[in-house]
Specification:
heterodimer; A: about 350 residues; about 75% helix; B: about 525 residues; alpha/beta; six-stranded mixed sheet; 18 helices; binds adenosine-5'-triphosphate; binds magnesium ion
Chain lengths: ~350, ~525
């Protein structure tokens, strides 16, 4: 029973990816290129060299976090579109904690930076969470609005109070003690990926091994029954949003501590928050699925750069493939139809 | 000899861990009401889901009027003239009655749905078979009974000649049951055939022509209804003698457990529904609440269990105010609650049986240890309850939604009874249960009463109320309009009171005071 479920959960996303790549091949062909060559470049560029692998890791890390953020909230029945804003406030909080605090031992400083981003993201997400829980205002609207508030607030901060000396709108570089360890001095990949994987484990643990997770999932599946079972729906919604936001916020921390080492002014959304939705969907809102989905998107992101520079194929093509993957995952009936995958029998009995 | 319309031969269907149908033969004749009887989990719904194309049999054949047919999905079934009304309705609530009925085969004029014509068709059809509906009312605003008639019309509109009704009476009040029976008689008179699933032997005896009894996936017997008795049917079903009526000793009630005074509350639209309820439940007694559906029963239960705020009056448990506590606090005071809607309130269908069995005490030791949830303790608890309450399931890990309807109900019963309650609020506790399981639940309720627990029983089944209760209070338009001694009252007296005629002890007092 369980095994069958699992197979189904993996099979459909897998087939969706294959189908999207297949259709993508025609698009490439249509633009006058060889699909085989293009895909070769894509995978070679992202996995064929140490540098490629390093960049893939760098691109994958934030997606794991934002994917977890979306998945976690979704398990409580909430649609967190605000990963972007939570990520941005996480970046800023981490950058500030990184440059302003001095004299801490490295390990501790890194912990503080991570906590700062997580706290900021959690706080940011708690607002739409509370509005939803107490007043019933739909979280989608408020999380989107919070994205803009994050964008403009940090824009102000990086041009005002936290601006570094010099002409550029950036914060001062973080202390060396706040930097995550890089695997090689000439590459950007860093221990942030382990923090991401750890967070996936934490998410899994919280959802399936704790009483809190039992309650959160109960609220996500059936609010009336949860309420009946003595589970506070508002409380769990707020908590789920805070934890969700914390994941997205830590994405910011890790990005600052591992890659950027400071906050750069953001002029338009980074996309990590939104890609997190796609990652969560493809990963079926399961932490393990999220990790693999993030990896796939990381590969595509890295490889598409190569495809553009080496093969001259616009990186929009990979964007297109990403979208098709998502469409196929959502429209799983279509995939089932194409591949004649029979649906498990799930008519609610009684 | 009447011709058979449906012949199912050697139908076998296996689910992971369970053989739901085992070489079943079933023949339905033209113009007959064929009752399908069997314990919870015997495989009735599964067999009918196969006939309706929702499931495919592993082996076996289906013949329609002698011709072999393949039914791969409900569309095939509909095209062959087979319609099914599920126990849980599949209607679109914001749509009107007509829109629901024509969905999928809408009459079209100039590329638009011809709603006028549709309404006329629906009205004509409804008249033909005596199904009272309001074609332009929204489904969410109509009664459960009418929703069911809409489901039946939906099937008839699509040209059904063979109707499957899966426990249609479980959700109906006695009045609505009577109406349904008239409709069923009308339908077969006009040549339709009906497969009728029910657990109520009375109904089987009253309407069916023949009855097939299934046990553990196998056909035990097919009998002419006129040649059998409820006792015989019950025995064939369960495989042993069944008490159709509970035995109950005299018992002196003790202290007052629950005292409700002048309780007021409003419904979801803000309309007052409880207009000053007074009642009392003592240790060691069963107080039955009788009444026609929609007189405030739902809201009364909700206020008592912390699911609805009160707007006036008081609720006291052992002398302590429990007004507006939340459900967890109410449970901590020793109240267990069997909710009337098992799929909406009582269960998380996508949770496993085990996870459902600990709902409500999931935060307490030994289930919860620090922040951890203790899976082995959950498994342990679940296994014990499954055994004690005879829940038919392949295991505690399967999702609650795969259980048969009656076994879902048993999950709730097991969970609530095992909470060591002081007071049990039981709303329609035996809805969907087979006679054996009903006997078990009734015995259990009486035993708990004998142990000194207080029981508030809300039921539409007058039989159940009469045989279990010590006292009976009648609720009418949000008030308790009278209270009677269960030993001295009759169905007639209760019926009158339920229609709003005052009577009984409290009624007398009121009269003499006012
Ligand atoms: N989709 C499913 N997946 C797994 N097991 C199932 C599924 N549907 C039914 N079963 C199992 O098949 C058996 C027969 O169930 P079915 O619903 O047919 O019983 P029933 O006779 O209708 O019982 P009830 O009177 O309680 O409604 C049960 O043991 C049930 O757990
Ligand atoms: Mg059934």
């Amino acid at each position: 029973m369980r095994k069958k479920n699992l197979l189904d959960e993996i099979l459909i996303p897998f087939l969706a990816v294959i189908t999207a790549l297949f259709i993508g091949a025609f698009v490439i062909l249509w633009s006058g290129q060889s699909p085989l060559f293009a895909y070769l470049v894509l995978f070679k560029g992202s996995l064929g060299s140490l540098r490629g692998i390093s960049e893939t890791i760098v691109n994958t890390t934030p997606l794991i976090f934002t994917g977890l953020a979306v998945a976690f909230a979704f398990r409580c029945g909430l649609f967190n579109i605000g990963g972007e804003g939570q990520y941005i406030v996480g970046l800023m909080a981490a950058a500030v904690a990184g440059f302003a605090i001095k004299g801490l031992p490295s390990f501790l400083h890194i912990m503080v930076v991570i906590a700062a981003g997580g706290l900021a993201g959690g706080l940011w997400a708690s607002i739409p969470g509370i509005l939803k829980a107490k007043l019933g205002v739909h979280e989608v609207i408020n999380t989107i609005m919070m994205n803009y508030i994050a964008l403009y607030t940090t824009h102000y901060l990086v041009n005002g109070p936290f601006k570094a000396e010099g002409p550029l709108p950036v914060t001062p570089r973080i202390q060396p003690t706040a930097e995550l360890y890089r695997f090689s001095p000439i590459m950007r990949a860093n221990t942030g990926i382990f923090i991401a994987l750890l967070c996936a484990v934490v998410a899994y643990y919280l959802l399936w091994e704790t009483t809190l997770g039992y309650e959160i999932r109960a609220v996500g599946l059936n609010q009336s029954a949860a309420e009946y079972g003595g589970i506070s729906v508002p409380k769990n919604m707020v908590l789920a949003m805070i934890i969700s936001g914390a994941f997205a916020g830590i994405a910011g921390s890790v990005q600052v501590a591992g890659v950027q080492h400071r906050f750069y002014d953001i002029f338009s959304f980074t996309g990590y928050g939104f890609d997190g939705i796609a990652v969560a969907l493809l990963g079926r809102n399961h932490p393990l699925g999220v990790v693999f989905a993030a990896l796939l998107f990381g590969i595509l992101a890295t490889g598409s750069m190569q495809m553009q520079s080496v093969a001259g194929i616009p990186k929009e093509v990979t964007g297109l493939i990403q979208f098709m993957i998502i469409i196929f995952v959502i429209a799983d009936e279509l995939i089932r139809y194409i591949y004649r995958v029979k649906k498990k029998e799930v008519v609610a009995n009684g | 000899m009447v011709e058979p319309v449906i012949q199912m031969k050697g139908i076998t269907k296996t689910f992971p861990g369970i053989k739901a149908n085992d070489d079943i033969d079933l023949t339905v004749l033209r113009g007959e009401i064929h009752a399908l009887l069997g314990e919870n989990g015997a495989g009735k719904t599964t067999l009918m889901n196969i006939l309706y194309g929702l499931y495919q049999q592993d082996s076996g054949e289906i013949f329609l009027k002698g011709k072999k047919v393949e039914i791969n999905n409900p569309n095939d079934a509909i095209n062959l003239g087979i319609g099914m009304v599920h126990q849980h309705f599949m209607l679109i609530e914001p749509f009107t009655v007509t829109e629901n009925i024509i969905l999928g085969s809408e009459p079209v004029k100039n590329g638009m749905i011809d709603i006028k014509k549709a309404e006329k068709q629906v009205e004509a059809l409804a008249k033909k078979y005596g199904l009272k509906v309001e074609p332009s009312a929204k489904v969410k605003d109509i009664s459960v009974g009418m929703q069911q008639r809409v489901e039946i019309l939906k099937a008839l509109y699509k040209g059904a000649d063979i109707l499957i009704l899966d426990e249609p009476t479980a959700v109906l009040t006695p009045q609505e049951v009577d109406e349904l029976i008239v409709i069923m008689d009308n339908l077969v008179e006009q040549g339709k055939s009906i497969v009728f699933i029910t657990h109520k032997l009375k109904e089987v005896m009253r309407v069916s022509h023949r009855v097939t009894v299934i046990r553990k996936g196998k056909v035990i017997d097919t009998l002419e209804t006129s040649q059998t008795t409820p006792q015989e049917l019950a025995e064939k079903m369960v495989g042993r003698k069944v008490l159709l009526r509970v035995e109950k000793k005299e018992k002196q009630p003790g202290r007052t457990i629950l005292k409700v005074e002048n309780l007021r509350a409003v419904d979801n639209r803000g309309v007052p529904v409880l207009k000053g309820i007074n009642l009392e439940v003592k240790e060691g007694e069963i107080l039955g609440i009788a009444g026609v559906d929609g007189n405030g029963q739902t809201e009364l239960v909700e206020t008592l269990t912390g699911l609805r705020r009160i707007s006036g009056g008081s609720i006291r448990m052992l002398g302590e105010d429990i007004n507006n506590l939340n459900p967890r606090e109410v449970f901590e005071k020793g109240v267990a609650h069997i909710p009337e809607d098992r799929q909406k309130r009582g269960l998380i269908l996508e949770y496993s049986v085990a996870e459902n069995l600990i709902l409500g005490r999931h935060y307490k030791s030994p289930i919860s240890k620090g922040i951890r949830i203790n899976h082995s303790s959950i498994r342990e608890t679940a296994k014990n309850l499954i055994k004690e309450y005879d829940i038919r399931t392949p295991g505690e890990k399967v999702m609650a939604k795969t259980l048969s309807g009656g076994n879902q109900q048993k999950v709730i019963i097991a969970r609530e009874f095992s909470k060591q309650p002081v007071l049990i609020v039981a709303a329609q506790p035996t809805r969907g249960l087979d006679v054996g399981a009903i006997e078990f639940v009734h015995k259990k309720l009486v035993k708990m009463r004998d142990e000194g627990k207080g029981i508030l029983l809300i039921s539409f089944e007058l039989d159940e109320i009469l045989s279990l209760s010590d006292r009976i209070a009648v609720i009418y338009e949000g008030e308790i309009i009278g209270e009677v001694d269960a030993k001295k009252t009759t169905e007639e007296e209760l019926g009158l009171m339920m229609a709003g005629h005052k009577g009984g002890i409290i009624g007398e007092e009121k009269k003499s005071v006012g």
